[in-house]
Amino acid sequence: MYFRQRRGWEIPERLATPESVYLNRREIIRVAGLAMLGGVAGSLLPNAALAQSDLTAGLYPAPRNSKYATGRRITPETANTNYNKFYEFGTQMDVAGEAEALRTRPWELRIDGMVEKELFFSIDDLIRRMPLEERLYRHRAVEGWSMAVPWTGFPLASLVELARPLSNARFLRMESFLDPAMASGQNSFYPWPYVEGLTIAEATNELAFLVTGAYGKPVGKVMGAPLRLHLPWKYGFKSIKSIVRFSFVDEQPVSFWQQIQPAEYGFWANVNPDVRHPRWSQAMERDITTGELVPTQIFNGYGEFVAGLYGGLDDEPLYM
Ligand SMILES: Nc1nc2c(c(=O)[nH]1)N[C@H]1C(S)=C(S)[C@@H](COP(=O)(O)O)O[C@H]1N2
Ligand SMILES: [Mo]
Asked: 49, 58, 197, 275: which could join 253 in a potential S-S bond, CB 3.0 to 4.6 Å?
C-alpha cells in the first residue's frame, strides 16, 4: 500500500480553478508572498492561490522514510477516524461526522511575527513546494490512549527555514482556524482559536512533522486537514490541527489547554510515565485498536532524538 513512488506528473492540473476570478489587493499581496517562496512556476500561482479543490491529491502516497519505525501495529484507518479529539466539532471522541463540515479549500496560511517578511500563501502552494514523505509515528495522548499512524508531510524545520525568523525569535506560536459558523464547537466557552507553542529548537527538531496526508492520501478532516502538526515525543494535545497561522515570538505562547487548565497542561508537556497527571497515572497506555495496555516510554520512546532539548530546565514542569 505504501510502496508506490510519488509521481510528480500526476498533479491534477484539470482541478485547477479557472482564472475567472480577478485578483483583489489581498490576493496580490499573497501572490507576492508566493514569489518570495520561490521555485513555484509563476503561471501556477493565481490558480493555486484561489483553488477551491485540493490540487495536490496526486502527490500521495509519498515515499516512506524508513528511519522512523514504531515497533507497534499501525492503527487501521477506520479505528483512527472513529477515535479523535477535535473540539472545534465537539468534545466527544467520535467527531468524524461533525468534522465533515470543515472546508479545507481554499485554505490560506500566514507566517508573521519576528520574521524578515510576512508571508501569505495557499496550502497547495506550500505542499507543492515541500518534498513529501511518509513517516510512521507513535501518537500518545495525555488521556492515556495511543495509536500508530502513517502520516505524510514534511519537517516543520522546512517551514521555519522558509519563514526566515529573526535571530531574537524564541518561540513558534501556531493557531488553528476560527469560524464558528462552520465549526459548531467554536460556539462553546473554550478560548478559541486553538493555539499551541514550541521553542525554536523544538520546532526545528527533525521529528517535528507538518502533516498534510495520512494513510497514503490527503489527511482526513477529522485528523486536522489540511495541515496539522505531529510531535511524536509529546502528548497529543501539542499536535495542533487545521493550522492557519505561524507566528515567531519572543514570549512563551499560552496554549489552548493551558488557558483552560494551567495545572494540568503545561507548555512543555513531554511524555513521561513517571509523572502523574494530577488526576491519573501516566505509566501505561491503551492501544485504541486492541485495547492492550502497554508501558509508556519516556519521550514516548523518542529520547534519542529529543532528550537534548531539555537540559537545564529542571525547574520547569516539563512533564505535565
Ligand atoms: N485544533 C485542534 N487541534 C487539536 C485538538 C483540538 O481539539 N483542536 N485536540 C488535540 C488533542 S487533545 C489531541 S489528543 C490530538 C488528537 O489527534 P487525533 O485526533 O489525530 O488523534 O489533537 C490535538 N490537536
Ligand atoms: Mo488529547
From this structure: 197
